[in-house]
Amino acid sequence: MNTVPAFRYPRVLSIAGSDSGGGAGIQADLKTFAALGCFGMTAITALTAQNTLGVRSIHAVPLQILADQIDAVVEDIGVDAVKIGMLHSADTVRTVAAALQRHGLRQVVLDPVMIATSGAKLIDDQAIAVLVRELFPLASVVTPNLDEAALLVGRPLRSEADMEAAARQLIERGADAVLVKGGHLAGDTVSDLLLARGAPPRWMRAPRIASGNTHGTGCTLSSAIASQLALGADLVQAVEAARAFVRGALAAGADVRTGAGSGPLNHAFAPQALQKRPLA
Fold first, then answer.
1. What are the two backbone dihedrals, phi and then psi, of residue 46, each rounded to the nearest 5 degrees?
2. pLDDT for the residue 204
3. Does residue 95 form part of some domain?
4. Buried/exposed 26-45: b ≥16 CB within 10 Å, e otherwise
5. Helix or strand or coil: residue 16?
6. Domain residues for 203?
7. CA-CA-CA-CA torsion sign (136, 106, 16, 30)
8. Residue 273 resides in a domain
9. DSSP state letter for 21
10. Helices H, strands E: what count in the chain?
11. CA torsion sign, 15 to 21 to 22 to 23?
12. What is the pLDDT of residue 59?
């Protein structure tokens, strides 16, 4: 006798590049979704040949294939939240923006992946302007690290005051909320700033975790935020829970060697069972 379905899973779509080394990109996203009890899906924007030492090459996925991936997932399975990562070109950005609008997708976490942990640039200059113009207004939150935020505003960011000024500038440029990650600032404390339109700045600080394994930290944080939104958290709750998850994954992976460079986090340090939600 067949069981009549009464539930569904929290569904999160990653629109991002593939990391052959498994530490970042869609690989990190899927590990994060699974660890937090969500059903993960992907629309691959680019293939990269990379490992813990750096990026060797990038091959963009044809735009029609990218659009087809998004359409196939949304039209059949459905999407509760979206994480957007590496968008290598302006045309890729436009394709993703059109898909978000075509399907009316909400709860979008935009991680403006521009610079790899190794220092390799992952986006061309034209794409940055299109990203701001077309995707910022569609995102629930934009999550640049210090280097990415500096690239977006066109000046170095060397202090918390610089971070806040940059966040306000990104809000003025169309973002509803910005999480500027301050992990690249010197010091024993990591300070992140969440600024939402019309709200006071919200600083989130914690002691720095000593680890050489930080590859994919930003991908993991943004996918964890999207997971929490899919699970029903509001933005502040989602960011706080995602930061806690990343800190746990960093600590759990600090004593492990994977490759000769910057290794991955331990995404599976406290896995959650796949959650169920009543069918609407």
1. -160, 150
2. 98
3. yes
4. bbbbbbbbbbbbbbbbbbbb
5. strand
6. 9-252
7. positive
8. no
9. T
10. 8, 11
11. negative
12. 94
CATH number (domain holding residue 229): 3.40.1190.20
Name the amino acid, one letter, at 33. F
Cα(98)–Cα(105) distance, integer angstroms: 10
- Strand arrangement of the beta sheet that strand 108-110 belongs to: 54-60, 39-51, 11-19, 81-84, 108-110, 141-142, 177-181, 189-196, 202-207
pTM of the predicted structure, to 2 decimals? 0.97
pLDDT score of 194 more than 80: yes
- Tokens 């680890």 belong to which residue? 211
Secondary structure of the chain: what % helix, strand, coil (to 5)?
40, 25, 40
Fill in the DSSP letter of residue 131.
I
**Stretch 36-65: mean pLDDT:** 96
Average per-residue pLDDT for the chain: 95
Domain presence at residue 151: yes
Domain membership flag for residue 266: no
- pLDDT reported for residue 114: 83
Separation between Cα atoms, residue 212 and residue 265, nearest integer Å: 10
Residue 230's φ and ψ, nearest 5 degrees, are -65, -30
**Count of the separate structural domains present in the chain:** 1
- As annotated, the active-site residues are 181, 214, 216-219
Cα(113)–Cα(148) distance, rounded to whole angstroms?
Answer: 7
**pLDDT tens digits, 77-95:** 999 999 999 998 999 999 9
DSSP state of 145: B
DSSP string, 26-90: HHHHHHHHHHTT-EEEEEEEEEEEEETTEEEEEEEPPHHHHHHHHHHHHHHT--SEEEE----SH
Q: What is the pLDDT of residue 280?
A: 73
